[in-house]
Amino acid sequence: MSAPGPTPRRRRRAAVLTAALACSALLTGPGPAAASGAPPSPSPQVSGVPRLDWSPCKPGSPWDCATAKVPLDHAAPAGRTIDLAVVRRKATDPGRRVGTLFVNPGGPGGPGTVQVPQNYDAFPKEVRERFDIVSWDPRGIGNSTAVNCFDTAEEAKAWAARPPGGFPVGAQERKAWTDAYEELGRLCEKRDPDLLRHVSTADTARDLDLLRRSVGEPRLNYLGVSYGTILGATYANLFPGNVRAMVLDSNIDPQAWTNGNSQGEPRTTTFLRMGSDSSAAATLDRFLTLCGAAPAARCAFSAGSPEATREKFDRLMQQLREHPVGPWTYARTVADTVQGLYIVSGWPALAGRLQELSQGRAPKSPVYPPPPPVAEPNPYLGDEQAAAVWCSDSPNPRDPAAYRGLEEDSARRAGDAGRFWTWAAEACATWPARSAAGYDGPWDRPTARPVLVIGTRYDPSTPYAGAEAMARELADARLLTNDGYGHTALFNNASSCISAYESRYLVDGTLPPPGTVCRPDRVPFT
Fold first, then answer.
1. pLDDT (mean) for 80-86
2. Less crowded by CB within 10 Å, the N or C end of the chain?
């Protein structure tokens, strides 16, 4: 679930569901929101497989763009259609090309037409050589037919200023938070209720099969990270005979996603069922331990030892509760810290921000990489887009008052990170729609080929236990362990061992030996 750092047009708040899980640390910086007009009118009937008319996204760009028309409701293909924005980068060694690799970079809410081009160099070299890499903005998201609940950019900006940054602290902020998200749900239901009921993971899995057919692939090659793992697992069980190769990196436990397919009111949130709070706390502890073991020249926040550095962090959190540093409140700093743990190459910068705050100075604004060479690098990515998918798909408590107790329970086991992750799902408490065609399992339908599951030991978002669970749930899967840090092995690009096994599997289907463990090429702060 998305962003370890700011994404285009996205507010830096923990409760943005997509800001929790999709890996978009390397995206471009914020831009002005662009609100859409009225809901689109029904389009002409789509007959069969959508046609992709590829053309360069921009003059001279190595990326091609296309638009696919797909049914809003796959059960009623003659009805309204929606648009999917698609991008492609051709294999760099066409003489040895294997096929097309479809990539979902996470979310829900991750715009593949932006994130995949932005992070293209993170893909293993052999994968870039041997595959056309294709991604798309899932229905409801970004440059595709998107959920947008505001008439103007000004309205969207005004709403975004209402919830407190990070997560709410105190009764007044909790009321502001819950009131804002309740209103967001009402606005969305009023604007395009049909779209809200048809942005489920299963709907997107069916879109993916149409895209597979559009590029002429007899079976699917797929790489999904974070939320993309539950999308991949859904596809594998809806279309088990169509899987050629599937890599699932930083996994969501399917039973946590569906609440065990229970029909009763969920007792806790998706993130807390997953164990995101405890995993983030463990990753933060490793960050502080490694930082404290390093000199200040390598980790600015180091206090000379792991124990002293952990104590320094706790003191800083307490200080910020009582005396924010400019806009840097306690809650905003916790959110920034958890999100800053996603990409290990950003750990020194995170340490620098914490050190600045410890000295009473507000950190400088981050520097964003340039936009990728695609047609629309800064689509509108409001909170409602992630919520539309997440809240319609995965059960969360429907009583806003329940989140205060869940927060305290989580804080007792996971500290500050528990408060972050509890409120990350509260938007679902008052979300107005459930999916009309969701998928809740089973997860063990035999696939044509086995699936490669990758899990990272210290992941601040999707715990290693989620990868273990995914490997157990699927009918035929092999677990590859990344004994390292950060959210997703792919976007951290930290282990040549992982890259080699991943490439070999995608190219010729060779799985790593059972029990294989890879280690990072470099330990943080060394």
1. 98
2. C
